[in-house]
Automatic annotation (TrEMBL):
Signal peptide as annotated in the record: none
Keywords: Amino-acid biosynthesis, Pyridoxal phosphate
CC cofactor: pyridoxal 5'-phosphate
Annotated CDD domains: SK (cd00464), Thr-synth_2 (cd01560)
Name used for this protein in its record: THNS1 protein
Keyword Amino-acid biosynthesis in annotation: yes
SUPFAM superfamilies according to UniProt: P-loop containing nucleoside triphosphate hydrolases, Tryptophan synthase beta subunit-like PLP-dependent enzymes
Pathway annotation from the record: Amino-acid biosynthesis
Source species taxonomy: Eukaryota, Metazoa, Chordata, Craniata, Vertebrata
Pfam family, one: Thr_synth_N
MF terms (GO), sorted A to Z: pyridoxal phosphate binding
HAMAP family associated with the record: Shikimate_kinase
GO biological process: amino acid biosynthetic process
Highest taxon listed in the record's lineage: Eukaryota
Name of the gene: Thnsl1
């Protein structure tokens, strides 16, 4: 019987990994560091055939690092400048550059590289080698290219201290900084692994980081995923199902046992020096570095990942900073997450996730993405998947379920306007919790999923925040916000900040926890709810109780949620990965409508989290107050967070409030908050009225375009009935794939 997606993990078909015996030897035997590496590399023929190729700008320390790595591995070390170029030319590199000029130098250097061959060696490239495509293609065939990524300011300082005044590209009118920035595009094109190197890091430390990075590159099996409901005993004895990796969990979405996927060994940790090296970086550069550490190159190579990230966060965002941090008042700062094409924080994941998904799926099967939304996810996921290449859209369809009467008029217009032949929006006569629960039940209905596979050659996948690829990109903006405060001189690195997030499904909050696990100094997490305050009560009491609770429609519909899916991942984390306990808690919630945390777990939770909630009246009052004093308009969700932050922060450190959506999406509530007596019911008219206020930030560019293109018709509406939802799914598959 077909169960969602049971197959041998993709990377096992293409990648040779360390054997369990060798891995246990490395991890358990008290052998000196160098001996471990020599044994491991030699036993896997790396020294026999492959080279370790160090690449980076001049002054990155390639030569010194290469010598140390070679010494540890007891293998030949080759410096391209000293051992190849100067030997071939019978003159120094600087003399050759002076004699022939930049263009001819690059060509001569490339020719020398094309004639060069080696195996089982550590090779230190020149800073300009990567600028010759044919030469790099030649040398990369037999090696792993390691990019020593050193901040430009550090390189500039080093080269000036050494008196270096002649490198390729440097000329009157072109600064050293410009040359180094120009070269980055070539380094990014060729590397397999990136090693971050701060200014004060010793070469010995860099060498060990290189060896660790190469080991990770070769040994992808350590980066597997588990379900939040898998037992420790099953994992230790191998009784659980075949190991799954990033590619697999992106496709599968939900675990077969109903749990959510998490990395078995947790998330990677960055050192303080590595974070500080990203202070001057752009958002795209930060995203590349962070996600490279979280996604193994066996799943998505670094060069492809860079291409995907640049596509996701380039022209699609209206602000060059992508996720800017703006001072609001006092110690409060806003993290503006609404500059994407659909005006909410969902764009950060859903401009990226469709490309990750399209890359990971096998080419032999069609996929239908199922989504449940409380408002913002719908338009974001439709827009994101609509931006895929046509060849990908031919084998990927999408169905978006939303509460017909539980989203704002503009949100509904967005979802309708983003529909395509392969992407439908279906309004359900119920609330978000029903839509989300229905999707989970469809995924675990093996009869239905098996029928779709056999009859139509189509598998189901999820794009909600239950999918790991939805959560991962959100870590980036929390880390980036902290680095921006450091860059602006508000804090020094290492100083703590608090975070306040309007919270419904707990995904955004969970991503902030993950940022802390990776090394960002976040002190306290403030969970802000509206009148659907089940999370607030849970954080205060340890009792998650849905009995007798009815969902209340509010001015902040994205957090009109009673069942917070990603809370399961957080509880799994603080329960020390006790899958049996997590299973017990969530089975009890499903069957009895409530559960209660043990006292020790509640204590752990309350060390991290505090919580409060905000009424609609207080939400509107906050919008009016902030506009009156600053000229800035908060959206309704950010206003909820602002109210709760005012009540709960202790003002001893900066607090970053996540501004999760643009106020334009909730025009009727905003106009009411601004005390406009008569509100036109036409969404486009509402936006034009708001634009007359000349407020900050201005009206969102994407919303105006969407509303100009579409009215409020042209979507399916159905009853809250599982069989009806499954019928819609089958109809879309028939229309698109058959």
């Amino acid at each position: 019987m077909f169960h969602i997606f049971q197959y041998q993990p993709l990377r096992l078909l293409t990648q040779n990994n360390l054997s369990g015996m060798c891995l246990k030897l490395i991890l358990s035997r008290p052998v000196a560091f160098a001996q471990i590496w020599k044994s491991w590399f030699s036993s896997h023929s790396l020294l026999g055939k492959k080279n370790i190729i160090l690449m980076g700008p001049p002054g990155a320390g390639k030569t010194t690092t290469g010598r140390i790595v070679g010494q540890k591995l007891d293998c030949p070390v080759i410096d391209i400048d000293d051992d190849v170029l100067e030997t071939t030319w019978n003159m120094s590199v600087s003399e050759k550059l002076r004699d022939v000029g930049c263009e001819e130098f690059l060509e001569e250097e490339g020719k020398a590289l094309l004639k060069f061959s080696a195996s089982g060696s550590v090779i230190s490239l020149s800073g300009s080698n990567p600028m010759h495509a044919a030469g790099m293609q030649h040398i990369k065939k037999n090696g792993i290219v390691v990019y020593l990524d050193v901040p430009t300011a550090v390189i500039t300082s080093r080269l000036k201290a050494k008196g270096t005044d002649r490198i390729v590209g440097l000329s009157p009118g072109i600064s050293l900084k410009d040359v180094l920035q120009f070269r980055k595009q070539f380094y990014k094109r060729w590397f397999d692994i990136r090693v971050l190197c701060g200014g004060d890091v010793a070469a010995e430390v860099v060498a060990e980081k290189v060896l660790d990075a190469v080991k990770r590159y070769q040994d992808s099996e350590l980066e597997s995923f588990i379900s939040t409901r898998s037992s420790r005993s099953g994992r230790s004895t191998g009784e659980d199902s075949q190991k799954l990796y990033f590619s697999d969990v992106v496709i599968q979405g939900l675990a077969l046992d109903g749990g959510l996927f998490v990395p078995e060994r947790g998330l990677p940790k960055f050192t303080a020096e590595e974070w500080q090296g990203l202070i001057e970086a752009t958002y795209v550069e930060r995203a590349q570095v962070i996600l490279e550490r979280c996604i193994h190159p066996a799943d998505i190579p670094a060069s492809k990942l860079a291409e995907i990230i640049e596509s996701a966060y380039g022209e699609n965002f209206s602000c060059s900073k992508v996720a800017p941090v703006r001072h609001l008042a006092g110690n409060q700062f806003l993290l503006e997450l609404f500059h994407g094409p659909t005006a909410s924080f969902k764009d950060f994941a859903l401009q990226l996730m469709p490309h990750l998904f399209a890359y990971c799926i096998p080419r032999s099967c069609n996929y239908l993405i199922l989504v449940a939304t409380s408002g913002d996810t719908g338009s974001a996921v439709l827009d994101g998947f609509n931006r895929l290449h046509d060849t990908d859209k031919q084998r990927i369809a999408l169905m978006n379920f939303f509460p017909e009467d539980g989203v704002s008029p503009i949100q509904k217009s967005q979802m309708i306007g983003c529909q395509k032949e392969n992407a439908w929006s279906v309004g359900v006569k119920s609330d978000f919790d029903f839509c989300q629960t229905a999707i989970k039940q469809i995924f675990t209905n093996s009869d239905f999923t098996g029928f779709l596979t056999v009859e139509y050659g189509t598998a189901l996948a999820a794009a909600n925040s239950i999918n790991w690829a939805r959560l991962l990109p959100q870590i980036v903006y929390h880390a980036s916000a902290y680095l921006d405060l450091v860059h602006q001189g508000i804090i020094s690195f290492g100083s703590p900040v608090d975070i306040c997030i309007p919270t419904g499904n707990f995904g955004n909050m969970l991503a902030a926890f993950y940022a802390k696990m990776m090394g960002i100094p976040i002190r306290k997490y403030i969970c802000a709810s509206n009148e659907n305050n089940v999370l607030t009560e849970f954080i205060r009491t340890g009792v998650y109780d849905l009995r007798g609770r009815r969902l209340i429609s509010s001015f902040s519909p994205a957090v009109d949620i009673l069942k917070s899916s990603n809370l399961e991942r957080y509880l799994h984390l603080i329960a020390n990965e006790d899958g049996q306990l997590v299973t017990q808690l969530f089975n009890q919630l499903e069957n009895q409508g409530h559960f209660q945390l043990q006292k020790d777990l509640l204590g752990k939770l309350q060390q991290d989290l505090v919580a409060g909630w905000c009424s609609d009246e207080d939400c509107l009052a906050a919008i009016h107050s902030v506009y009156s004093t600053t000229g800035y308009i908060l959206d309704t969700h950010t206003a909820v967070a602002k109210v709760v932050a005012d009540r709960l922060q202790d003002r001893t450190c900066p607090i970053i409030i996540s501004s999760t959506a643009h106020y334009s999406k909730f025009a009727p509530a905003i106009l009411r908050a601004l005390r406009i007596a008569e509100i036109n019911q036409n969404p486009l008219s509402q936006l034009h009225l708001l634009s007359s206020y000349s407020a900050l930030p201005p009206i969102h560019w994407g919303l105006l375009e969407t509303l100009k293109k579409t009215g409020n018709g042209g979507h399916h509406v159905c009853a809250a009935d599982m069989s009806v939802l499954m019928s819609h799914i089958e109809t879309l598959i028939q229309n698109h794939f058959m």
